[in-house]
Write a structure and sequence with these properties.
The complex is a heterodimer of chains A (301) and B (257). In chain A, 32% of the residues lie in helices and 28% in strands. Chain A has 301 residues and is an alpha/beta fold. In chain A, the strands form three sheets. In chain A, strands 6-7-8-3-9-10 form a six-stranded mixed beta sheet, with helices on both faces. In chain A, strands 2-1-4-5 form a four-stranded antiparallel beta sheet, covered by helices on one side. Chain A has a four-stranded antiparallel beta sheet with strand order 12-13-11-14, covered by helices on one side. In chain A, α2 (98-108) packs parallel to α4. The chains are: A alpha/beta (301), B mainly alpha (257).
Chain lengths: 301, 257
């Protein structure tokens, strides 16, 4: 097993407020391995952004430790290997063009600027108006500019806090493509904090859900699905399947006129559909696929 | 990456911005020249019949104005960078660079200091041309005392920058220090008196002595004191800035706007 490039052990953060101590993160444990995309989910004020900022040393920890690339975050050298967008598109100098921004931030992170790589990123993300200062760009293009600046120095770990903010569907798809390519070509790891469930579902290998500074769930998408189902299938009531049929073992609920099955595996879905068509109700089958959003909401109920 | 590479990067940023927004710079300098001419000709009319000492006063006015421009440039070098980064919402990108924030601000300050020296030299030339005066001054005394005194105001800039890191807006402090700089430049701290303990005052006073074509050997003890004064204020500024940086990180307000 690969050594994690980022580990947080018993990480704790308290803020002192006029109303007393506010615990933003409570003995939080976390890790990211090379080439892994981890999604960080949680309601507003759950501690996601605080955690991301703690990785970047923007917020000091109260207790615990964070190690990045084998170094304690008190030394700043590890930051060379990290790219980040913190809280949306707050990362570019609006008086500079995207190219000027990329050059400046690449050198600020002590890396050599590669124009061919820059052009490749621009093309893949579909950025337009590259010759204008960023203040003249649309919100989506500004966000893409911030993404380019976060990736331009070829970091090994990229922290993206709300990366799809202001992006249209094409922009979101382009970002997904770029993330997959970075994974494939450079084994780049990503930590993505977002409220865009589709994006998280499509991009992440693993998901961590936090609430009020505590971890509520950690696991891969299948484990989260395993908590309930991947497909919800409704069909009219028909004669009970034979005793030897596997369909009898499927989790289901019954109404007067219909059955609702909760299926986790594709093979089970196939068997159920075969059963429905064999009994002449195939065309009346109604199916809903798993939605991360519903599952996520369920964690808080 | 060494200091030179960071210096080149910050110079690149400075050059791009100056080139793109040249009109803003030119108009700012034009306005300052306009204010100076108002002061100069008002003073010149009053002392039109004067000779000798009054003529030297006019020269001192030119030097004083140029020194004030330089002093303002030194002070704003650190503080304006932090204010600009806060306003541009890019402070956190600077704060997550592999080098310490105070180091990066120091690099930016070097670029601004060089720029302030250029403005100072250019302003002196333009002021002499516009007023038709040929200054007979000791440029070595002028430049060495100013360069030695500059870190004290940079230190003050660090203090304001630190306050800006924590509170994001330090407009009142900045305005007060701007007014204070006029006082520091116009104060007579040479021959040595209590004002010599204030930042920059002694350096500015020695610089103005250049008009009297004073010999460097005469003012050397004062220049040593300027260096000591500068070192202390610079160290104080750096200390306050680092404390403020640490405080902002512990409160989690560093990246807030």
């Amino acid at each position: 097993m690969k050594q994690p490039i980022l580990t947080a052990n018993a990480l704790h953060k308290d803020y002192q407020t006029p109303k007393g101590t506010l615990c933003a993160l409570d003995t939080f444990n976390f890790s990211v391995s090379p080439g892994e995309v981890v999604g960080l989910l949680g309601p507003n004020g759950s501690g996601k952004s605080t955690f991301v900022k703690m990785i970047l040393s923007l917020v000091e920890k109260t207790r615990g430790s964070i190690q990045a690339f084998g170094q304690d975050t008190n030394s700043r050298h590890y930051l060379k290997k990290i790219g980040a967008i913190v809280e949306g598109n707050r990362s570019v100098n609006e008086r500079l063009t995207i190219l000027e921004n990329a050059k400046y931030y690449c050198r600020l992170r002590e890396s050599k600027f590669d124009l061919a790589y820059f052009n490749d990123l621009i093309k893949k993300l579909g950025v337009t108006d590259t010759d204008k200062p960023c203040r003249f760009l649309s919100t989506g293009n500004k966000q893409k500019a911030a993404i380019v600046c976060a990736l331009i120095h070829r970091p090994e770990l990229v922290l993206l806090d709300e990366p799809t903010l202001g992006l249209d569907s094409f922009g979101t798809d382009a970002l997904l493509t770029v993330i997959r390519e970075q994974l494939e070509k450079y084994q780049t790891s990503f930590l993505i904090s977002s409220h865009d469930f589709d994006f998280i579902q499509q991009s992440c290998h693993r998901i961590t859900v936090i609430n009020k500074g505590n971890k509520v769930f950690e696991g891969n998408l299948d484990e989260l699905i395993g908590l309930s189902y991947r497909y919800k299938v409704s069909l009219p009531r028909i004669p009970e399947p034979k005793e030897e049929s596997s369909i009898r073992t499927f989790k289901r609920s019954e109404c007067t006129n219909s059955w609702t099955f909760f299926i986790s595996a594709v093979a089970e879905l196939q068997a159920l559909l075969n059963f429905a068509f064999a009994n002449g109700v195939g065309e009346k089958v109604r199916m809903e696929t798993f939605e991360l959003k519903n599952q996520y909401m369920g964690l808080f109920k | 990456m060494n200091f030179i590479n960071h210096l080149a990067n910050e110079s690149y940023l400075h050059f791009v911005l100056q080139k793109r927004y040249w009109l803003e710079t030119v108009m700012g300098l034009g306005l300052l020249l306009f204010i100076f001419l108002g002061l100069f000709y008002g003073f010149a009319v009053d002392s039109s019949a004067a000779q000798g000492a009054e003529q030297e006063s006019l020269d001192r006015l030119i030097i004083g104005f140029a020194v004030w421009l330089f002093a303002t440039g030194c002070y704003t070098s650190a503080t304006s960078d932090i204010s600009t980064e806060v306003a541009n919402k890019t402070l956190e990108q600077l704060a997550i660079a592999p080098k310490d924030l105070s180091y990066l601000i120091a690099v930016k300050t070097c670029v601004h200091l060089f720029s302030a020296l250029l403005v100072f030299s250019g302003a002196l030339l333009v002021l002499c041309l516009v007023t038709g005066r040929n200054l007979d001054i000791n440029y070595f005394v002028l430049s060495s005392s100013l360069i030695a005194a500059a870190p004290s105001l940079i230190g003050m800039g660090y203090v304001t920058a630190g306050i800006t890191l924590v509170h994001k807006k330090a407009t009142i402090v900045q305005t007060l220090i701007f007014v204070g700089i006029i006082g520091l430049v116009s104060t007579q701290a040479y021959p040595l008196n209590a004002f010599a303990f204030a930042p920059f005052a002694l350096g500015a006073s020695v610089a103005k002595e250049a008009v009297s074509n004073v010999n460097i050997a005469e003012v050397m003890p004062a220049v040593y004191l300027v260096v000591l004064n500068s070192t202390l204020y610079f160290a104080l500024g750096l200390y306050v800035f680092r404390k403020c940086d640490r405080y902002a990180r512990s409160k989690g307000t560093l990246s807030h706007v």
